[in-house]
Design goal:
This protein has eleven helices and twelve strands. By secondary structure, it is α/β, with parallel strands linked by helices. It has two domains: about 120 residues, 3-Layer(aba) Sandwich (Rossmann fold); about 180 residues, 3-Layer(aba) Sandwich (Rossmann fold). The strands form two sheets. The chain has a seven-stranded parallel beta sheet with strand order 8-7-6-9-10-11-12, with helices on both faces. Strand 9, helix 9 and strand 10 form a beta-alpha-beta unit.
Length: about 325
């Protein structure tokens, strides 16, 4: 059998590359200083059997029409909203991802953003840089304490569960959550399933951990924000597309909600003069939820494992779209 060739769409940790090479696969990695365009990626893949993709790659109908020769696609991420699942299915190309690799890392970012927003870390740091730190009046720049508050989780999957656990154990926060269905397995802490409207109304901190889909696209709009407490903090480490960003700006300006912490925006990158970046009670990060040595290495390992196992058994270890 001819040696199978894998194209990795951008440089990833070495562990996955070595695994594939040790399994007898020929691997080529794009090591440019920016991602390939869709046209460039399609052109590169003409001589390859496998694409190990990133979530920034646009794998739509055009991609799968032009790359119908691929045996399998494995993605270096948990999310896969960049992939047209129906087009992949029509082309008969199995898909895999890397679930669970970034659970702790992303929950840590959500937890950190909650603390940072509650105490206005980013804005106060900028005051020092701007030379504005003179004297702090007794009632200026006040934040909120988190102990005993209610954390609401939208999407109680692995990351949402870890965020809830951190909040419960660190601050004794009450946990409520909303999924499409209540969980059918026990948790190590008490958590109450509530409706979406009750989640909005009862959360002191609302943390978003659901996947981007047709049903969640733009779900956090002005109508949703209007149901929240005026003292509440909104956290999003999932996907920017779940939020109508203009509505979030309005909700903060009109004091419908108190603050926000974001690791994801729409679009990405966020423009440098975006109003959210100028607000005292908002903290924004450049989508670094999985950016730890450990998480990225595990993502590389799992993405490679999908490919290796596919050529052994005909099935990926972590399938998506099935």
């Amino acid at each position: 059998m001819a040696v199978k060739k894998v194209f990795v769409s951008w440089d990833i940790p070495e562990i996955g590359i070595k695994m594939m090479e040790d399994a007898g696969l020929l691997v080529e990695v794009w090591k440019g200083n920016k991602p390939l365009t869709q046209e460039e990626l399609i052109a590169k893949l003409r001589g390859f059997n496998v694409c190990l993709s990133l979530s920034i790659d646009k794998l739509d109908g055009t991609f799968f029409q032009q790359c119908a020769h691929l045996d399998v696609v494995s993605q270096f991420s948990v999310g896969y909203d960049n992939i047209d699942l129906s087009a992949a299915s029509k082309a008969g190309i199995p898909l895999g991802n890397a679930p669970g690799a970034m659970t702790e890392a992303t929950a840590d970012i959500a937890f950190g953003l909650m603390i940072a927003a509650s105490r206005k870390f980013f804005f106060m740091h900028q005051q020092i840089i701007n030379g504005a730190w003179k004297v702090n009046p007794p009632q200026a720049f006040l934040g909120q304490e988190l102990r005993g508050k209610t954390i609401g989780i939208f999407g109680m999957g692995k990351i949402g569960t870890e965020m809830a656990r951190l909040c419960h154990q660190a601050y004794g926060m009450e946990v409520i959550y909303h999924n499409r269905h209540p969980l059918d397995h026990p948790l190590s802490f008490d958590a109450k399933y509530v409706s979406f409207d009750d989640l909005m109304a009862e959360s002191d901190v609302l943390s978003v951990h659901a996947a981007l889909s047709h049903s969640t696209q733009g779900i956090f709009d002005i109508k949703a924000f209007s149901k929240m407490k005026s003292t509440s903090i909104f956290i999003n480490t999932s996907r920017g597309g779940l939020v109508v960003e203009e509505d979030l700006v309005s909700a903060l300006k009109d004091k419908m909600i108190w603050g926000a912490g974001l690791d994801v925006t729409n679009p990405e990158p966020m423009r440098a003069d975006h109003p959210l970046l100028m607000m005292e009670n908002v903290c924004v990060l450049p989508h670094i939820g999985s950016a730890t040595v450990e998480a990225r290495a595990e993502m590389s390992r799992l993405a490679a494992l999908n490919i290796i196992e596919f050529y052994k058994s005909g099935k990926v270890v972590h399938p998506i779209g099935q």
